[in-house]
Design brief:
The protein has helices spanning 2-36, 42-64, 72-92, 98-104, 107-116, 121-142, 154-181, 184-206, 208-213, 218-245, 247-255, 257-267, 275-326. By secondary structure, the protein is mostly helical. The protein has one domain. Helix 1 (2-36) packs across helix 12 (257-267) and helix 3 packs antiparallel against helix 7. It starts with a helix and ends with a helix. 40% of the residues are buried. Mean pLDDT is 75; it is low at 297-327.
């Protein structure tokens, strides 16, 4: 039964990981469509997304009526970071392609690694491999701009998304701590509430004219609604995956987002993907697999070491008592 249960749990985690990956790819696709309509309103997209999170998870948190284990001002700082990364990522679609943006999002994992401060030989190999792949991804963009689409400036878009990944890395570190050590529902509720407040103030100050210029046709309303709903699915499933399986499964699941992005670009946009991109993707995938194997091995060593020290600590009182009896 344990093997069967473990098998079903693994299958469930794989499916959950693909739900996370697919929902993120759909968010990217819808954002790309909104950009194609000439709409540049990242704060507005973020505001409605956070608002839905607050409306869904806020009442659940209020019904519990318990003291927050994490001070509210820490959530506020985390929201500033998350909202900044989210807005930059949306902005990048004005200049670059869905495939490149999703591939460069892998930089988030690199930055998270640096924040974790866990260094070994294999991890240095992983970092070098991933950086080589990401560099190839940028090079593929430099020679693949569509001559018929003068609005695209891939290198600028790549620079923006790389900047966004630094925000996401800090946000992911805080998210992993909240969902593993504290409360997953509380994290999502506070993220939505403070995110709505922060982006609401920002769009009032910086994006009012852009909102007025948007042609709120049924198509545009449908795109914004679709983005908000899929964002809710992503924000709901991602913390659940992190809590159940940890960062490794989450990182590898996000890697498959690039596959979905390639499928969307080829079959919907009818655009050819530079062959260098496939090479870049393969290299990044190899780097992440190296990291995942090494992370699992490191966790096993740490767990074994912890168990050994605990066992020794527990035996000490017995040994002292035995010694006292001999005396």
């Amino acid at each position: 039964m344990e093997i069967k249960g473990g098998t079903w749990r693994t299958l469930f985690l794989l499916l959950l990981g693909q739900l996370v990956s697919f929902s993120l790819a759909i968010c990217s696709f819808i954002t790309s469509l909104i950009s194609d309509f000439g709409v540049d309103a990242p704060l507005t997209q973020s505001f409605f997304s956070y608002m839905l999170l607050a409306l869904v998870y806020g009442p659940i948190l209020l019904r519990r009526m318990k003291t927050l284990p994490i001070p509210w001002y820490r959530y506020l700082v985390l929201v500033f970071i998350d909202a900044g990364g989210n807005c930059l990522a949306i902005k990048a679609y004005q200049y670059s392609y869905i495939t490149s943006i999703n591939l460069l999002n892998s930089c988030t994992i690199l930055t998270s690694f640096a924040l974790g401060a866990r260094y070994s030989f294999l991890q240095f190999v992983w970092v070098g491999t991933c950086m080589a792949g990401l560099t190839l991804g940028i090079l593929s963009d430099s020679g693949s701009a569509d001559v018929q689409d003068f609005s695209k400036r891939p290198l600028l878009g790549d620079t923006i998304i790389v900047a966004a990944t630094f925000f996401f890395a800090f946000s992911n570190v805080g998210e992993e701590y909240c969902v593993k050590k504290k409360d997953r529902v509380e994290f999502i509720a506070m993220l939505g509430t403070f995110g709505m407040l922060v982006t609401g103030v920002q769009l009032t100050l910086f994006e009012r004219k852009k909102i007025e210029a948007i042609n709120w046709s049924p198509t545009m309303i449908g795109l914004f609604t679709g983005y908000v709903v899929v964002f809710l699915v992503f924000r709901t499933s991602a913390p659940f995956l992190i809590k159940m399986s940890g960062a490794t499964m989450f990182n590898l699941s996000l890697l498959t987002t690039d596959v979905w992005a390639v499928i969307i670009r080829i079959f919907f946009y009818h655009q050819q993907v530079n062959w260098i991109y496939y090479l870049a993707f393969a290299i990044v995938a190899i780097g992440l697999i190296i990291y995942s194997v090494n992370e699992d091995s490191s966790d096993d060593v740490i767990a074994a070491s912890t168990t050994e020290h605990t066992t020794q600590y527990e035996q000490l009182p017995g040994e002292l008592i035995a010694g006292a009896n001999l005396d």
